[in-house]
Amino acid sequence: LLGDDRDKFAIGRETLNFYILFVAKPGRMALYTDDMNPSEREMIPDWTDQEYVESSRNGCPEDFRLLVQRYQKPVFAYLAARMGDPLAAEEAAQESFVRAFLSLKTLRKPEAFYAWLLGIAGRVAKEQFRSAARRERDREAAEVMRTEAESDAKEYPLEEAMAALPETYRQVIVLRYYEGLSCQDAAVRLGAPLGTVTKTLSRAYAMLRQELAAREHTESTTIQSNQS
Amino acid sequence: MNCAECRDQLVALSEELLNAGEQQQCLAHLEACAGCRAEYKAITSLHQRLVARGQTAAEAGLVAAVMRRVRQQQNQQPERETIMSKLMKHRWGFGLSAAAGATAIAVIAFVTLSPKAFGIDQVIAAYNQVRFLHVKTFAGDQETPNEFWIKADQQGHVEKARYHLPQTEDGEKLITWTPEKAEIWFKGKHGFVTLQTERIAPMMQSLLEQSQPQLFLKGLLEGQKSGKVGLRMQEGPGDTQVIVVTNGDGQKQVISIDNKTDLITSLAFYHVEGTNEVLRMRTEFSDYNVQIDDKMFELQDELPPDVRVADRLHEVIGVAQGTLTDQEAATETVRQFFQALKDKDYKKAGLICGGETEASAREELGSFNVAKIISVGPAELQTNWVDHGFRVPCKLEIVLANGHTYVAQPGPYVRSGDDEAHPDRWNITGGINLAENSGE
């Protein structure tokens, strides 16, 4: 494009509902569509969360799509576990992303986008419980509902723990488990050797376990101190 | 295999990435070492938890819904920063508010932002409206451009225009236009027509408006709102800013803006075909507000003396249709034309023939004496014409000055609508060849 061969150019096959978005960065450009297939997406270089955040708030709001793409599944899983209801979780996840977009300017550390997003999701989940309580005019029932939901699914701390990982490590976990890629596919996606991916995974596991252990420890001491 | 080597391979083991030999060695070590066994158990346990988490979220697809809501929010909050709002905040953006009240702010903004070599007064004038403009357009690989000179009034309406088209179906043409009078010089056909027309103004107005960043960007804004175009800004060659506009139909537009003057210097339209971009049209804007002499908008002084002249400005041309059908009107027009020639009424013949003057008609046709009109018509509809038009085959007995007599078979072309003020009148546009071998 423009005789600038550093630019990458990809167009989805669907022309209906075609929405083009530019990722503008010196030397790099890509066009995205909602309907782009994975092999086409592979042509598009990945940016860091920070780059997407900055680009989204500096005049390329469509870049926010890539952040949604990246974290929609962890956020949904987190909310589904907290709320115990996939439909409510989907609604809450949507709401969380939209709110994140609207307050993107207030995010002081763009590199901590995921942790910040999860914080928003947590607040949205709480609000929905509260409004459910209001609807039912019965706070107690809602409280029971909340505790039950939370005790039924104790896995949501996993997504919280992921917030503590450096982005590279979190990215590998997201690709491997939430996007469901094999290690080989993740390697292709990241443009890295397979060995690097397994080493990164290994290190990510160690950090996740450490983080989870710390959380469980805090939780149990809190419970003990509450009981005493 | 020692513990360190084993632990290095535990992830590969859990992912089934080891070859048979490595796997065997690893499993043998795990069998013997409780510490590594515990580590492996922890890894597979976390692996299983994560797999389950991924399965929970497998169906989640939020992108389209979220982006739809994001766009809705943006439309409700136009002040939110987008590429477009950034463009709008650029110096040439404020003109969009268009209200007279904005002018004072505009002037202040210019004084502080544009201490330009171009001349502050000229920049402001050019910014608020272009009064004089010179435009060149290159269609595809056309080497000699079409050129336009435009003069606008203070309200930004085209007042006068001149344009040169080197390649048309009628050959080379030079045209001037004012609301009162248009002149068309068919250089290739050695003809000249004066008339009054409203058809030229919208074309010139559109060119003029394309040159004005604030109007042009308004168009882009509308395109972006409807989700039809993508925009990108980048530094261009020299001291220019380039905006690239793309839509989903493989069309691309590249707009260059001079950073010094904040005026558009060129527009290029491309069609993207596969991986190639084909240049369809390039438009160059230059000489912004460089005064154009009023003489440029009059062709009279430039004409060669022997050019055939048609005056549609003062004369009503052609033949009225009345209650005739189109086919009948076409035939009747041609019949009246040859009757006029037979009667040596060159004034009438000229008028039917596109408004040619009596002198021109006499000079062109005076040597042919029409002795007898043998037949006229029937008129044949010309389906390949843009507008409705007919060819009317005729047979005429011609007697030359030397007494030579023969039958000519011309097929004049006839159509209505050439005179905008009298759309019901039909006139001959060509095909009058009275030579001996015509029609054979």
Quick tags:
heterodimer; A: 228 residues; mainly alpha; 10 helices; globular; disordered N terminus; B: 440 residues; alpha+beta; 12-stranded mixed sheet; 5-stranded antiparallel sheet; 13 helices; 28% strand; elongated
- Euclidean distance between termini CA atoms of chain A: 69 Å
H and E string of chain A:
HHHHHHHHHH
Based on helices, strands and strand pairing, what is the structural class of chain A?
Answer: mainly alpha
Strand ordering within the main sheet of chain B: 7-8-9-10-11-1-2-3-4-5-6-12
Low-confidence stretches of chain B: 78-124
Mean pLDDT of chain A: 72
Major β-sheet profile of chain A:
none
Sheet-strand content of chain B, in percent, reads: 25-35%
The best one-word shape of chain A is globular
Notes on the structure:
The complex is a heterodimer of chains A (228) and B (440). In chain A, helix 9 (183-190) packs across helix 10. Chain A is globular. Helix content of chain A is 65%, strand content 0%. Chain A is mainly α and 228 residues long. Chain B is of the alpha+beta class and 440 residues long. Chain B has 13 helices and 20 strands. In chain B, the strands form 3 sheets. In chain B, strands 7-8-9-10-11-1-2-3-4-5-6-12 form a 12-stranded mixed beta sheet. Chain B has a 5-stranded antiparallel beta sheet with strand order 13-20-19-16-15, with helices on one face. A 3-stranded antiparallel beta sheet of chain B has the order 14-17-18. Chain B is elongated, with a radius of gyration of 37 Å. Chain B starts with a helix and ends in a 10-residue tail after the last strand. Mean pLDDT of chain B is 79; it is low at 78-124. The interface between A and B is large, with 56 and 53 residues.
